[in-house]
Automatic annotation (TrEMBL):
UniProt entry tagged with the keyword Transmembrane helix: no
Organism annotation: Conger conger (Conger eel)
Entries under CDD domains matching the protein: StaR_like (cd05804)
Family per record: Belongs to the TTC38 family.
Domain of life: Eukaryota
Name under which the protein is recorded: Tetratricopeptide repeat protein 38
InterPro entries xrefs: TPR-like_helical_dom_sf, TTC38
Keywords: Repeat, TPR repeat
Entry keyword annotation includes Repeat: yes
């Protein structure tokens, strides 16, 4: 990134996105922070996102949007719980108080409102605030990106796609970060199963910028959902040099790479990626995305019969401190995978019990509201599966199978729970569950023809003589 290209006060105003500060340095550092967020990359030459935020707040300690982006990025990282992190709770409270005492533009006030909503677990209201900004300011990349992430956490695939469709025509290829706008739109297309168009738009973005890790990520999803394993392997290998520099998405792209190997039954190759990339990057970053990917990968391998207990124990050191965060159900479910895999009964029990407590008095937090009817029974199903009570796991998961989107994430990420339901049904001693497993596999084969993983499971079902 070229620091000379970052916008000062006048440049932001010229773009119709005025910032309430007189500090040109603060404006440029805000732009640098936003650019790194949009590109999934901490640029060491700029000091990374944390360095830019620190310098920005020193340049103008009263810059409301500087504090808004700082709190917003920490919150969407989902690694800090407002209930447990007094410093973060204080930052959000000070942001709201600071905004109330200053003369801000309506756009800036909506940004503060969005951050406050998100902080309190009102994710839908947060997205509404960012969408309100985009009605008048369709080139506000911060609002675009925060809404995109918000919809992702909500599992709202169509709004995630349409949010980008509404603003894309206001941009041109000459505007900085345009390729990343295309890549976000391509991901929305992929998640709404428009695979041909998703691949086309993503590759247009990659042609403009081979280092667009999010565009590469969309193509990886397309190959996964089509069960095009060899094409996926070839694509990831041919584009690795571009996206491996995107430190905030690189581990996730390696995770996608590993899924192709798991699908093909090439477990040693998958474990090599886990050891050399996924786990290494997870330990280095402490990022929730990297963490949940590592959890999911081991859980999938274990369901395939691979012994990964030692790796679970190593990963537990990363996930255990977040046992009681309960920021996202998606995170909780993945942390439980590792606690169960590492045979840490106390940690597993504490995670489920504290989630149950929040579900009983959720307040306005959407994740806690969803916990009672979705998150907690999914956790209980995983515990039942771990204890060998496969019939109970089926009975808990079966009524929820069309509601899994509510935990957020992508189709590819949530597929681990569909696999769990199939494995539970196959292992249940009840014939009706085994017949249900066969039906699930017929569905799976129709949705993703030529899946080697599905074929292996069908062979297992056939061996039961259902």
């Amino acid at each position: 990134m070229n620091p000379a290209s970052f916008r000062d006060c006048k440049a932001w105003q010229a773009d119709g996105l005025s910032l309430s500060t007189t500090s040109n340095e603060a404006c440029k550092l805000f732009d640098a922070t936003l650019s790194q967020y949009a590109t999934w990359r901490n640029d060491e030459s700029l000091g990374g996102i944390e360095g830019c935020i620190s310098a920005m707040q020193k340049a103008d300690p009263n810059f409301v949007m500087g504090h808004a982006i700082a709190a917003g990025l920490e919150l969407v990282g989902t690694g800090s719980s407002l209930r447990l992190n007094e410093r973060l709770a204080g930052d959000v409270a000070r942001l709201v108080e600071m905004a109330a005492g200053q003369s801000l533009t309506p756009r800036e006030r909506l940004h503060v409102s969005g951050v406050e909503h998100f902080a309190k677990g009102r994710h839908s209201e947060a997205c509404e605030a960012w969408e309100e900004i985009l009605l008048d300011h369709p080139r506000d990349m911060l609002a675009i990106k925060l809404a995109h992430d918000g919809y992702f956490y909500l599992g709202q695939q169509t709004p995630m796609r349409d949010s980008l469709a509404r603003v894309l025509h206001h941009w041109t290829p000459q505007i900085p970060l345009y390729s990343y706008l295309k890549s976000m739109y391509s991901f929305g297309l992929e998640e709404t199963r428009c695979y041909d168009e998703a691949e086309k738009v993503a590759k247009e973005g990659l042609e403009m910028n081979p280092q667009d890790g999010w565009a590469a990520h969309t193509v990886a999803h397309v190959h996964e959902m089509r069960a095009e394993m060899d094409k996926g392997l070839q694509f990831m290998a041919s584009t690795e040099k571009g996206w491996e520099v995107c430190d905030m998405i690189a581990s996730h792209n390696y995770w996608h790479w590993s899924l192709y190997f798991i699908e093909k039954g090439q477990y040693e190759e998958a474990l090599t990626i886990f050891d050399n990339h996924v786990m290494r990057l997870c330990k280095a970053s402490g990022s929730m995305l990297d963490m949940v990917d590592a959890c999911s990968m081991l859980y999938r391998l274990e369901m395939e019969g691979v012994n990964v207990k030692d790796r679970y124990r190593e990963l537990l050191q990363q996930t255990k401190p977040h046992t009681e965060d309960h920021v996202l159900l998606f995170n909780d479910l993945h942390f439980l995978m590792t606690a169960l895999g590492a045979k840490e009964e106390a940690t597993s029990r504490r995670l489920v019990e504290t989630l149950q407590e929040l579900a009983e008095a959720p307040g306005e937090n959407l994740q806690h509201q969803l916990a009672r009817g979705l998150g907690v029974p999914m956790c209980q199903a995983m515990v039942a599966y771990d204890q060998g009570d496969f019939g109970k796991a089926v009975e808990l998961l079966r009524p929820l199978r069309y509601r899994f989107t509510g935990i957020g994430g992508s189709d590819a990420q949530r597929d681990v729970f569909q696999q769990l339901l199939v494995h539970s049904a196959l292992k249940s001693d009840k014939k009706q569950h085994q017949k249900f497993a066969r039906c699930l596999l017929v569905e799976r084969d129709a949705a993703r023809p030529n899946s080697l993983l599905t074929n292996r499971l069908i062979q297992r079902a056939n061996a039961l003589h259902i």
